[in-house]
């Protein structure tokens, strides 16, 4: 049991969230509270408890009977809960006071304004069924928030939502989509286009969202979507040139050839368009379904952050930018990153004020029917982990789709949380147009083949209502076909263009251009500035009680700064962060427990022992222009890394860092590295300054706390194998720094370059505080910079052996060499930057000692670490000398879990480096 005193203190402690809100400019969204029932309404609810149970039952269970499935594949059972008899309500003519039970007035905003109103049971039933058991099915009664539940009831039952339905616009969108799909089918019959046939209502749904955003004076909609109907969206609403598409389909470049990019397939093309003042941007994405989800969130949040800086004080999170994610049903239910991103959606460091999710739900994924693809009834059920409301809507009824989308937008605006629209449609062809769906779904496809298309059904409805004429229909369809034909005729003269250095990227250069400055010669900082930043980084305001154990941390930092010697890793990092903040850059470091640091080394965030208040001295004490955001994240790797990566697309003025708790755990985010970080530039011309900090090194911690799998990162590098080849536009820098000063310069170089490039850091664990690894302040001073290769301070003049290596093993080797009295015989060469490989620096050392034997030493097993990457490259500059391997033998694990085995292996590695001397 907690003491009463402690439990009161816990309750009254400043909410931890506050520091996130205040210290870096985050503005919490407005919160919306529905007013409570009046006492008269409560009395009426009690008096008519049976009616209340019935009404709530329809709200809760109506979706189970609603007509939402165009193919009627969902086997609906009779829903007994919707029968008023079950609640003792038999007389349809009996009148009830509905005040406080159902909502009747669209105009009232608060509960208390409702008046007594008498409705018969028959009227109540008809009213409720027309809402809850029709073409839109609602799931909101699971929400633990009374305000949200009341908001929905009010909104739906009071008919508050009756959007202006522009039937001609809807018709135009549907008809053009059909013309487009038919056109592609005719002209490119062998193309996998992932057409929208059967799901055309996606377009009016998105059109509604975009126009809602424009009406709400938003500036941006960030859209992420998979393959289905992507070309339809691009070419119609998002102004993508059909000529460019046709050129691409014929095998042409979508990007200017001279940029050296390798491009991507048609189903990943992108565009942005200005739609009535709101800029709608469709993000590029890889084939890995849903991987883009976190990227979209990060991009959206970062955009809002930038906009908030220039917006009036009353502009809150989510006011200016909205994220819209489109999903397939199978992917939404199956891909774990969805769960991870939903988990981020309402966290202070990750929320962007609510995403509108649109699931284009054709009840099939490739050949797998819904019944085998998910364990839940609806594909949207994963959204219930955050209690997101869900609107299921029948795609055969585009006007209901528009309505559903409008409600979704309104909900998001009120509550700034995620909402899901499950758009039930069908897929007219196979997974792609070359597939035979009848092989696996003969009955489903017999049913589909018998259906008239969604555009045609809607067209017929409007013709029947005499809203449009046959002439109108012909005009819409023929003119679009003529437009597409005209566009096709222009393909031969088409030349792609690119505008990757627009708006916030204007001050950057293209990394492959001659203006790109790879390695700024000076990333040092004035010593006085360093000292003042360092002092501020551990300054604690009066009255703020830090943990007594932290005094040592503070003292050692201040002492090292004073002496100008022995700066440790965390100090170098604080100096890099602080100096960048002073120069106007923002820094965001995200990951698990980054505030304190996994190894209790960082302490960039301090916690008051009495109140649990939090401060970030680099913000509070330095008062720089830039802000340091310490985003302690949820326990996710994929979505969080994706998020930071998305932010890096948006903000070249931000140093975006993702830190793995231990390097090993990055592999949960491998997809993001493969398909975004290592390849976005060559696929989509997207630069990113993302930094991945991956604690790496064998120290007896066993198979899963030892290795950041450097070999995998290196294998993804596009570096040349030989110095005789042309220098590539490297896709990512991969480093294994061994001193705090090197780390300091790497962080600063990341921002001081005139372009942005991902940086992968095999980071320290054991050497975080190792005094032998300490740096002097002079190594951070003006005129200094990162050194891709580190030679020893005291060069060995005539070594018998040159040991090339990377990383922290260096310090053990130096000790071992001294013990063996081989200081004059062995020279160590630390390769600090592996990719791009520093051919020249390595060649210089090799040439200086033509007789020396050359070995590579690593502690990682032979099939891991940098060996396979460095071997060809070092030998390339050895003029015929061979490079000998010293290290662990091949292994299925990065490190053994048995202590004695680890020690023996480690001792063998060290001994091996000096064997024979
Ligand atoms: C992570 C991943 N696994 C598998 C695939 C192969 N694949 C492409 S589309 C698809 C089916 C997607 O179904 P759904 O999400 O329902 O979208 P639909 O094609 O029905 O619109 C699959 C399995 C992929 N692209 N990504
Ligand atoms: Mg599907």
From TrEMBL:
The keyword Oxidoreductase applies. GO terms for molecular function: oxidoreductase activity, acting on the aldehyde or oxo group of donors, disulfide as acceptor; thiamine pyrophosphate binding. Residues 567-770 form the Transketolase-like pyrimidine-binding domain. SUPFAM superfamilies: Thiamin diphosphate-binding fold (THDP-binding). InterPro entries: 2oxoglutarate_DH_E1 (IPR011603), DH_E1 (IPR001017), KGD_C_sf (IPR042179), ODO-1/KGD_C (IPR031717), THDP-binding (IPR029061), Transketolase-like_Pyr-bd (IPR005475). GO terms for biological process: generation of precursor metabolites and energy. Its cofactor is thiamine diphosphate. Keywords: Oxidoreductase, Thiamine pyrophosphate. PANTHER family: 2-OXOADIPATE DEHYDROGENASE COMPLEX COMPONENT E1, 2-OXOGLUTARATE DEHYDROGENASE. Belongs to the alpha-ketoglutarate dehydrogenase family. This is Dehydrogenase E1 and transketolase domain-containing protein 1. It comes from Cylindrobasidium torrendii FP15055 ss-10.
